[in-house]
Amino acid sequence: MASERSAGGIRILLSLGIAAVAAIALVLLVVNIMRDYEAQIAQASAPAETVTAIVAMHDLYQGVTITEDDLYAVAVPIDMLADTVYRSPEHVVGRIPRERILGDEFVREERLADADEGIGLNAIIPRGQRAISININDGNALSGHLAPGNYVDLLVTIRDAEDRDRRYTRTLLQAVYVLAVNNRKGAGNYDEEDPEAEREAARRHRPSVTLAVTPDQAQEVAHGADQGEITLTLRSMQDIGWEETDGVTTRDITGEEQARPTPNPRPRPQAAVEAPGPTLQIIRGTVVNEVEIDGGQIVVP
Q1: In terms of DSSP bridges, do strands 297-299 and 287-294 run parallel, antiparallel, or are they unpaired?
Q2: Rounded CA gap, 65 and 200, in Å?
Q3: Is pLDDT above 70 for 295?
Q4: CA 140 to CA 250: how far, in whole Å?
Q5: Rounded to an integer, what distance in angstroms lies between the CA atom of residue 36 and that of residue 42?
Q6: CA–CA dist 286, 151 (Å, integer)
Q7: Which of 27, 130, 270, 286 is the most buried (most CB within 10 A)?
Q8: CB–CB of 218/134 below 8 Å?
Q9: Is pLDDT of 90 > 80?
């Protein structure tokens, strides 16, 4: 009896021990989970690592040297910043934008001309291309609406060498990039001190448009400007592909060819033809023969 009671007590103690060990393990597991949650919460609430990024204070235009007043710095999480964004103003001041940079836009390396390419227009000419300027009438230059950074098509109108009243027009080049208009490589605003004087000067001079072209295209532009009249048409920034076009002549516009004076040539002298002698018709049934009378005699062939 005593042994049975002793064995039952041992089983109870073992059960209690196992339950105590399980309770302790559960407590330790809960504590570890809570510690992990606390670490994650602390990490999420901690401020992210940031770096300085250079931003444009306002619109920066191609060909216009950047100054300190054109820039400001912001703190940006390091994992949200592209590698090409400048992080120090010393690397940007004095540089030339290749293209327009909008206000509050990060200043990136690919948007600026190389530091060793110089300043002004020379710094923004794309590699492998040339800058060529043409002087055209204001109406043919879009009446003041043309600005650096636009894309244009070039149309040339040429007079017929034989008939000056007859002309034809064709598209010379398409989607050509505008580097400058007059001396404007940037915003092109008039001088704030005397805007009227600037406008008056612009009215007195034919607009000069500087384009970025390949060497072969530069020859076409120079030849077209020498032989005829250049007109520009503005293109959308989202539409700079190539479109097939046909040239237009005076006849296409008026519906008829321009009249040309036609010379009246003098009649050519006719060669003298010896008059034939008298003839005689001989009818034999249905056959009619005509014979010549030579000296009163009938000559039968």
Answers
A1: antiparallel
A2: 27
A3: no
A4: 19
A5: 10
A6: 87
A7: 130
A8: no
A9: yes
